[in-house]
Amino acid sequence: MKIFVTHKIHESGLKMLKKAGHTVTVYSKDEIIPRAKLLKSVKGCDAVLSLLTDKINDEFFTAAGSKLKIVANFAVGFDNIDLDSAKKHGIIITNTPSEKVNESVAEHTFALMLSLARRIPEADHFAKRGLYKGWSPTLLTGTDMHGKTIGLIGAGRIGSMAARCGVKGFGMKLIYSDLHRNESIEKELGAKKVSQTELLKKADFISLHVPLLPSTRHLISDKEFKLMKPTAYIVNTARGPVIDEKALLRALKTKRIAGAGLDVFECEPAIDCDLRDNMELKSHDNVILTPHIASATEEARQDMSEIAAKNIIAVLKGKKPLTPAK
Q1: Distance set, CA 250 to CA 56, 157, 196, 198 (Å)
Q2: Residues forming the active site
């Protein structure tokens, strides 16, 4: 059967699809596939392996045609896909959750926290520019992690893993806000469930781990930043629009917060939604920016590739997918 992959992925998944006897075409350029090219390429396909940068909607399903059975999204999230439209067209949607992905994102999340606390990127830049002229007791002083409080907004597996690094490795305290109680981290890590308002007031490091939904868009805006300590840091490895970028820029400019670590951006792939804005995120030394690479480890990307392939193979055999989007 005919499968189109919208971007090159780890070879292991592609090999699985070919071994299963399918014809696999991969978009060859290292870029987000142009919309017109995507719509043309999916015509007559039985399956499409998409990225989170691909908008999968009614226009897409119509262009693909009646043979399409599954869209396997190469991501844990699937906010790029219109699930109602997929259901209308009878298309199965899958994603790629896995422990490997959780671990990779959790490690990156904590790396951002630690880097903010100890000003590591700023110090690296300082040293490489030849500005280091000798030791000084006031040079690039940061903050200790030990004894500080991590606040998780969304206490799922990724957030819990990131917090575990802090609690068990650095003696940090843990609070969380979530729609559901997480008894596991309460028992293992001594976590305490609090309201989001209380969390924002008490946490030294606030880490976001919620999906992008209408209810979570701009979950953190001016009101929320005003509740935070001026010594607090915020980290986002979830989805960019969870933070109101303009509000974040205002908080940084007025020193309302100590800094931010962002792996995702509101108007991604643009770093700044308004390119005419003089308060660009990249101009702040107390902001660490990484280009949506929290899951970018060989182990995680291989796992994602293979999960996507397994989902496609199963569905094209008339079986249930391993990880249906839900």
Answers
A1: 34, 31, 21, 22
A2: 239, 268, 292
